[in-house]
Design goal:
It is a single chain. By secondary structure, the protein is an alpha/beta fold. Helix 2 runs parallel beside helix 3. The radius of gyration is 14 Å and the shape is globular. The chain has a five-stranded parallel beta sheet, with helices on both faces. It has one domain: Response regulator (Rossmann fold, 3-Layer(aba) Sandwich), CATH 3.40.50.
């Protein structure tokens, strides 16, 4: 009997920090296809060229658009209306979680995080979208 191969979901990691992009790639590569973007322009180009199942978005991307602004640009693309976009940020002040959800993110994870918390956050975001 032939085993069915299910394609792995594809994740876009958007972060201006090369070390963080690499860490996320290491954490995710066994379960996901990982594509990275180092700034707002590359993120939007990748989103236009590929269909991602999940986006991990740093909030502070350096010069150019913020992660929140990139989120809004991506949401304007029909194919990203229902894709989970997760805020990944060092900002962990009280109220940040609710603020990021109100701006349109599907979830939020603060740095530093564990591999397990990251993977769980992605799984939950995918399940929530699938249930809609």
């Amino acid at each position: 009997m032939m085993e069915m191969v299910t394609p792995r979901p594809c994740v876009l990691v958007v972060d201006d920090n090369a070390h963080m992009r690499k860490l996320l790639e290491i954490f995710l590569k066994k379960s996901y296809i990982v594509i990275t973007a180092h700034n707002d322009v590359t993120a939007l180009e990748q989103a236009a060229e590929h269909q991602f199942d999940v986006v991990l978005m740093d909030i502070n991307l350096g010069p150019g658009l913020t992660g929140v602004e990139v989120l809004h640009e991506m949401r304007a693309l029909k194919q990203y209306e229902r894709v989970p976009i997760i805020a990944v940020t060092a900002s962990a002040s009280e109220g940040d979680h609710d603020r990021f959800l109100m701006t349109g993110f599907d979830s939020y994870i603060s740095k530093p995080f564990t591999k397990d918390s990251l993977l769980n956050n992605i799984v939950v975001a995918l399940e929530v979208i699938a249930a809609r």
